[in-house]
Amino acid sequence: MQIPKTILYSNEHLWTKASTDGAWEAGITDYAQDLLGDIVFIEAPAIGTKLVAGQPCGLVESVKTGSDLHALVNGEVIEINQELINSPELINEKPYQAWIFKYKPSDDDVSKTLLSAEAYQALLDGVA
């Protein structure tokens, strides 16, 4: 299982990283996609949605089950990955390249409320 060291994670198994355009990308982790199995549908938050950290903001459905997406931080959705909406299986193939939405955080320091790769690995070790 991959846990890239250059991105941040949430307790709800989402990842985030700054994109080249200054926004932040968000997607689900390798662990989450593996747990869900074959992903068949994504309900991303609409552009303009106000994100509240820890609150549901979308949905990922697989052949096994559905799982809420929880906002990583407070902010606002500014873009949806339409390619991923049309081909949700891309998450299973490349979970850390298949971002679901981009957002602008309300706070400049996103890292203070999220997990490093090492802290996320420790979380998983506690789950496994």
Supply database-style keywords.
6-stranded antiparallel β-sheet, 128 residues, 21% helix, single chain, 4 helices, Glycine cleavage system H protein, 3-stranded antiparallel β-sheet, OB fold (Dihydrolipoamide Acetyltransferase, E2P), alpha+beta
Would you mind describing this structure in some detail?
- With 128 residues, the chain is α+β, with helices and mostly antiparallel strands.
- It has a single domain (11-106, 114-127), classed as RNA polymerase II/Efflux pump adaptor protein, barrel-sandwich hybrid domain (OB fold (Dihydrolipoamide Acetyltransferase, E2P), Beta Barrel).
- 21% of the residues lie in helices and 33% in strands.
- The protein is built from four helices and nine strands.
- The protein has a six-stranded antiparallel β-sheet with strand order 1-2-3-9-8-5. It has a three-stranded antiparallel β-sheet with strand order 4-6-7.
- A hairpin with a 5-residue loop joins β2 and β3 (24-28).
- The longest helix is centred in the C-terminal third of the chain and has 11 residues, at 117-127.
- The two termini are 13 Å apart.
- The model has no long low-confidence stretch (mean pLDDT 93).
- The glycine cleavage system is composed of four proteins: P, T, L and H.
- This is Glycine cleavage system H protein.
- Keywords: Lipoyl.
